[in-house]
Design goal:
This protein is α+β, with helices and mostly antiparallel strands and 252 residues long. It is built from 8 helices and 9 strands. Strand 3 and strand 4 form a beta hairpin.
């Protein structure tokens, strides 16, 4: 589960971006006044206790992408000593299918190409293993699904399966739902959920303010991307709350 994706490229290129920023700023203002006790009451009514099943970390059980805020990335880097490249990867659709980059398949679902053959994406997600599992989840026999960065885990992970959308508490699928949770635990979880909502909204506002437009592919970009793919390369342009970043990766 990730926070709602409002970064469709067709939309951000429109003349309404400034109005959308105003909408986000109003949402942020409202979020700062959320009644935490009411959110905690809902969480306690739903019930939750982590079962340590690891399902939320493994690709076999659904969308396990973890969209990161800038604070998440910094916290993990300080905890592990890893560089940013060892922690994150560009945010991409959960199952974009194989990239063929040929004139026979000009439209790749969920992928935005520019005229220079670069893939544009919005934000970063936690790196995953070749099998799709989170890179920081231990093997089942190794540490019983324990997170290797538990003390510095992203806000999305520490609040799962709860999140806020349009000022309302939302719930994702989870084996831990329906189990008893204490008043103090539900209050702490509610505080974290709202704190995450505020941080994500602030990051999104910064992303839109710093967004740099690009020319959508008219066919030539696909040919460039295809040539790069044959060379084993793929180029991403990641838009985030710090601006725009060009990343060269391996094409498999």
């Amino acid at each position: 589960m990730v926070w709602r994706n409002r970064t469709n490229s067709d939309f951000v290129r429109s003349r309404y971006i400034s109005l959308f920023i105003e909408e986000l700023e109003q949402e942020l203002s409202d979020a700062l006044d959320i009644n935490i006790a009411r959110v905690a009451s809902k969480i306690r009514e739903i019930g939750f206790s982590c079962q340590k099943c690891g399902h939320c970390c493994r690709a076999a059980f659904g969308d396990n992408r973890v969209l990161l805020t800038q604070k998440d990335i910094l916290k993990i880097a300080e905890h592990t000593g890893l560089s940013k490249s060892g922690i994150v990867t560009p945010m991409l659709p959960d199952d974009p299918g194989p990239f063929s980059f040929s004139s026979e398949t000009p439209d790749i679902p969920g992928i935005d190409l520019d005229t220079e053959g670069n893939i544009h994406t919005f934000g970063w997600m936690l790196r995953r293993k070749s099998n799709g599992d989170c890179s920081f989840i231990g093997d089942e026999k190794e540490c019983q699904n324990r997170c290797k960065i538990y003390d510095a885990r992203p806000m999305l992970c520490s609040t799962y399966p709860f999140y806020m959308e349009s000022m309302e508490l939302q719930v994702s699928e989870c084996e831990g739902l329906g189990h008893k949770i204490s008043g103090s635990e539900s209050l702490k979880l509610a505080q974290d959920v709202v704190r995450r909502y505020i941080a994500e909204t602030r990051d999104t506002i910064s992303l839109y303010r710093k967004f740099r437009d690009f020319n959508a592919d008219d066919g030539g970009g696909l040919d460039i991307a295809a040539r790069r793919a044959k060379e084993g390369r793929i180029v991403y342009v990641v838009h985030d709350s710090d601006g725009m970043h060009r990343i060269v990766g391996k094409f498999q």
